[in-house]
Specification:
207 residues, alpha/beta, eight-stranded parallel barrel, 8 strands
């Protein structure tokens, strides 16, 4: 995942449940309409067969377009399913073990809520990126907002790429466009009739 703070890239987050008869096609439409850097398979289910089937279907869509696909939490599934890495949800705690298990070429990212300390610790442990959020009121994490000041400080002081996610709106995108590397977009678009158009509208203020 590249670091380019002049133009935040899109990090797409799947819904917590996907309908495999339709979602791969919807995802493909979004990828064809908007340049996406990475996709996170973020299923709520821990059922291995369900996760594996979804990963197989979405990997085909993503890799056909040279887009990386990472999985949330399931480190042990990355290599078996031919995925590009893992997104960890417990801050820096599992980063070192995930890096050791997956090797240097895999993507390892960490959600760090609104904690500058956790973000720095994740980077020191070998994360390729950290994500902070929510950036407005949502159910992400414990609800503590990741303030604009956190992203501003990070963009000035830390080279490690950062993702802003959770509660994005056109206004929040405009406000954060100069201080984040990626926008983590998911729930904001999947409930819309045309997710690709919704994503374009959301990003209109990103510059």
């Amino acid at each position: 995942m590249a670091d380019d703070r002049d133009a935040p890239q899109i990090y797409l987050i799947t819904p917590p449940a996907v309908e495999l008869s339709s979602f791969p096609g919807i995802l493909g439409n979004v990828l064809d309409a908007v340049d996406v850097a990475c996709i996170r398979l973020a299923l709520a289910s821990g059922e291995e067969r369900e996760v594996s089937q979804a990963a197989d279907a979405l990997r085909e869509v993503a890799h056909a377009r040279d887009v990386a696909l990472v999985i949330e939490r399931h480190v042990q599934m990355v290599e078996r399913l031919g995925l590009d890495g893992v997104h960890l949800t417990d801050g820096p705690r599992s980063v070192r073990a995930a890096r050791k298990a997956l090797g240097e070429d895999a993507i390892v990212g960490a959600y760090c809520g609104a904690s500058r300390h956790d973000g720095m610790s994740a980077g020191e442990a070998g994360a390729d990126y950290v994500s902070f959020g929510p950036v407005s009121t949502t159910s992400l994490g414990d609800g503590t907002l990741a303030e604009d000041e956190l992203f501003g400080w990070w963009s000035e002081m830390i080279e490690l790429p950062v993702v802003a996610e959770g509660g994005l709106s056109a206004g929040r995108v405009t406000a954060l466009a100069g201080v984040t590397d990626f926008f983590g977009v998911g729930a904001e678009i999947w409930g819309e009739d045309d997710p690709a158009a919704a994503l374009k509208s959301l990003l209109a203020g990103a510059g």
